[in-house]
Amino acid sequence: MHVCGTHEHTISKYGIRSILPKELEIISGPGCPVCVCPAADIDKAIEIGKREDTIITTFGDMLRVPATNLSLTELRAQGADVRIVYGPNDAVKIAKENPDKEVIFFAIGFETTVPLIGYEIKINPPLNFSVICAHKLIPAALELLIGIDQLNIDGFISPGHVATIIGTKPFQLFSDAYHVPNVVTGFEPNDVLMALAMLLKQIKNKEYKTENEYTRVVKSEGNKIAQKIITDVFDSVSSPWRGIGRILDGGLAIKDSYSKYDADKKFDIKIENSIDIQPGCNCHLVMTGKIYPYECKMFKKICTPEKPIGPCMVSAEGTCAIYYKYG
Amino acid sequence: MKSDVKGSKIIRLAHGSGGTLQSELIEFIVKGIAQKNVNNGIGVEELDDGATIPLKNYDKEIVITADGHTVFPLFFPGGDLGKLSICGTVNDILMMGAEPLALSSIYIIEEGFNFDILGKIVKSFNQTAKEVGIAIIAGDTKVMPKTTLNEIIIATSGIGIKDTDIKICDNNLKAGDKIIVTGSIGDHGAALMAKREGLNLSTNLESDLAHLKEIYLAIKENIKQNHIHAMKDPTRGGIASALNEWSSKSDVSIWLEEDAIPIKDEVNSICDILGLEPFNIACEGRALIAVDSNYVDEVFKKIKTTNLGEEARIIGEVKSEEHKKVFLKTIIGGTRFVDMPLGESIPRIC
Questions:
Q1: How many angstroms separate the CA of residue B198 from the nearest CA in chain A?
Q2: For residue B317, what are the domain limits?
Q3: Are B192 and B308 contained in the same domain?
Q4: In a domain? residue B345
Q5: Contacts of B14 in chain A (CB under 8 A)
Q6: Are B209 and B302 contained in the same domain?
Q7: What rounded mean pLDDT belongs to chain A?
Q8: B75 and B217, same domain (yes or no)
Q9: Beta strand extents in A110-244 (DSSP E only)
Q10: Which helix (H) or strand (E) holds B154?
Q11: How far apart are the C-alpha atoms of B26 and B15, rounded to whole Å?
C-alpha cells in the first residue's frame, strides 16, 4: 500500500499496474490531503466566506471539494471572494493589499506543506490574516491502517515528500513494531519500481526494515529547520479524517501563543451536522484501501470529476479521480 | 442542461474549458437550431473546426469558421491577442484543407480601455493577416460599460475555399493511419500559466502561436489527393481533447508512444509544478495530421522541411480495435488511457 496521492498519480500515469504480475497488487491508501479534510472544516470556510468583509484563499484542488451543502467553487459562483493561491505567502500578500478585509488561508496538507504555513505565521503577518488549520499527519494514519484486519498489508511505499520533512525515523515504528516492510520512495516511475523491488526482496528474505529509496532527497533525520517551525507553531492533536474517523495525533492545531492568527478563534463559528460521506458514497472504503474505485456503484456513473459526490473524485491526487482519468 | 448535484443551473468556468462540460453547453445552444447545414455540407452539428457550403456547379466548397478570442494577459511571450485572433481563425480554415480567403472581425471593448493598447493589438492583428495573405473585409465594434466585460474580446469569422473532393474531417480517420504532430506540445498554455499573477516562474518559454499556412502549402498536393485524412490544431484541451474527438467521431482507437511525443522540458516542469497534464495544455501553432500510412514518409519529410515543422514527430497510429479510445504506451512500457480533459485546469497542492 502507498499513502500518497502523488504516488498514485505516478503509478497510474505511467501505467505501472499494467506491467506488474497478477500476484502483485498496489493498494491506494488515504494519501490525498484534500480528500481527508473533513466537511466541517470546509463548511467553516464557507460560513466565513459568506461574510462580505472576507477573502478566502486556498490551494486550487480544495476549491471543488463538496462539503455538506456547497463547495468553495459554488460559493465563488454565488459571489463570494474565493481565490486560488500557490502558497500561503501569496495569501499574506493579499492580506497586505487588502487591509480592510479579513484574509483567511484555508490550510490543508500533510507534513510537506505545514512548514510553509508555520513560517508565515512566525514572521508576523498582518492581523487581518488568519488560518483555518486543517493539517493532517501521516504516521498516525499509517498506524491506524495497519490495525485494519482485512487489509493484510504486506508492505508500505511511504511518501518521500513527507519524509523529506520528518525523516525516515517516524516510519521505522511500523517495520519494527508491526513487522511490515517499509520503503520511503520518490516520485519518478523508476522510484516506484525500485521501491517495489526493495519491498519484494524484504518479503522474500522475511525482513522488516524501513529503507530509503529516495536518498537523493530524504535524510534519516529529515529537515530539522522545518521540524522546528512545526513544533514552534503547532500542537499535534486528535483530529477527524474524512471517511476514516478521529485519529489520535492525526492532525495539527495552532498553538495558543499564535491564536491571533487562528481563524477558529477569531471567527468562533460552530459547525453542526456536517456530512462527510453523502449517502451511497464509498470514499471512506476507497481511502482505507478496502475497495477499488470501480467497485463503487456511483463511480463514473453519478460521480464524475465534473460532478463529484465524494472527495476522492475531486483532487488530481484523489484515488477515484485518478482511476477515472487513467482508467 | 443537466442540473448540478445540488440542483443549481449556472454556467461555470469549466463550461468553457474544452472538456465534456463544454460539449454539454454547446449541445444546449445547438439543439434548437432548425437548419444546421447547407447543401448537405459539414454543419454545426459536426462540431468540426469549420463548416462547409458545397457550391453545386463549381466542384468547390466554401469553408466558414467562427471564433471568439480572449486571452490573459493580452500580451504574452510569443504573441498577443491580435495575432492570436488571426492565427486561430486561419488555422481552423487550413485544418479543413482549405485556402484562407477573407475574414470579418468584431472588436468588443470595455469602457476605459486604453487606445495605445488597442493600437498595438490592431497593428499585430493587421500585420499577421498580411503575413497570411488573408483579407479583412467586414467588421463591427461594440463598447461595453465598465465591468461588464474584461478588457477586450475579438470575434472573427473566416472564409476559405477548397475542392469539394478534398475530405479532411474529424470522422475520417482510417485504421492504419499515422498521426503526425508538427512540433512540441503545450508551449502556449504553459507559457501563459508561467506569466499569470501569483506564480512568478522565471522561464524563457514562449507560446507556439503561429499560423500554419507554411505547413498547409508544403503538403497541399497530398491534401488534394486525399492522402491526409484529418487535420486539427489542438488548442483548448490540448492533444488529449483533439485526439479523443477524432477517435470518438471516427469510431477508431488511437495508440500513442509517449517517448515520441515532443514536449519541452520547461513545459513538463511547469505542468509538474501545477499538477497539470501536458497533453491537456493548449497549443496555438501546432497541427495534428492523420496520414494514410502509404504516404506518411512523404508527408513527414515535407513537413520537416518547413520552419514550423522542424520538430515534427510521428507520435502514434490508428487502429480499428477498442473503438473510441486513446491509449498511451508509457516510457516504462505500461499502457494507459488518455482521457478527454475534464474542464477547468486547476493547480493542485503538492
A1: 7
A2: 178-337
A3: yes
A4: no
A5: 306
A6: yes
A7: 91
A8: no
A9: 129-135, 156-159, 182-185, 210-212, 234-241
A10: strand B152-163
A11: 9
Statement to judge: residues B158 and B193 lie in one domain: no
| Domain closes at, from A271, A295, A313 | A271
Task: Name the domain boundary from B163, B197, B224.
Answer: B163
Number of domains in chain A: 2
* Residue A96 sits at the chain B interface (C-beta within 8 Å): no
Which residue in the set B20, B336, B348 is minimally distant from A315, CB to CB? B348
B199 and A18 within 8 Å at the Cβ level: the answer is no
Q: Are the beta carbons of B331 and A189 separated by less than 8 Å?
A: yes
Domain span holding position A225: 1-271
Test B332 with A73 for CB contact under 8 angstroms: no
Are the beta carbons of A193 and B8 separated by less than 8 Å?
A: no
User: How far apart, in whole angstroms, are the C-alpha atoms of residue A124 and residue A81?
Assistant: 24
Place of cell 454539454: B24
Could you tell me the CATH number of the domain that includes residue B93?
A: 3.30.1330.10
DSSP 8-state symbol, A38: -
Cβ of residue A164 closer than 8 Å to a chain B Cβ: no
Say if B343 is an interface residue toward chain A (CB within 8 Å).
yes
Interface contact B201, partner A, CB < 8 A: no
Residue B276 to chain A, least CA–CA distance (Å)? 8
- pLDDT-derived band at B6 (thresholds 50, 70, 90) equals very low
Mean pLDDT of chain B: 91
- Tell me, yes or no, whether A241 and A290 share the same domain: no
Point out the domain boundary residue: B119, B135, B163: B163
Q: Is residue A305 part of a domain?
A: yes
Number of separate domains in chain B? 2
ipTM: 0.72
Q: Does residue A145 contact residue A151 with C-beta atoms inside 8 Å? A: yes
Amino acid, res. A15: G
Of A60, A112, A327, the CB nearest to B346: A60
Is it the case that residue B344 has pLDDT exceeding 80? no
Q: Which residues in chain B are contacts of A113 at CB distance < 8 A?
A: 349-350
Q: Among A162, A178, A164, which residue's Cα sits nearest to residue A220? A: A164
Q: What is the pTM of this model?
A: 0.81
User: Whole-angstrom Cα distance, residue A189 to residue A212?
Assistant: 16
Residue A246 within any structural domain of the chain: yes
Asked if the model's pLDDT at residue B4 lies above 60, the reply is no
Q: Torsions phi, psi of A87, nearest 5?
A: -170, 165
Residue A18 contacts B where some CB pair is shorter than 8 Å? yes
Predicted local distance difference test score (pLDDT) of residue B224: 96
* Neighboring chain B residues of A16 at a CB cutoff of 8 Å: 332, 334
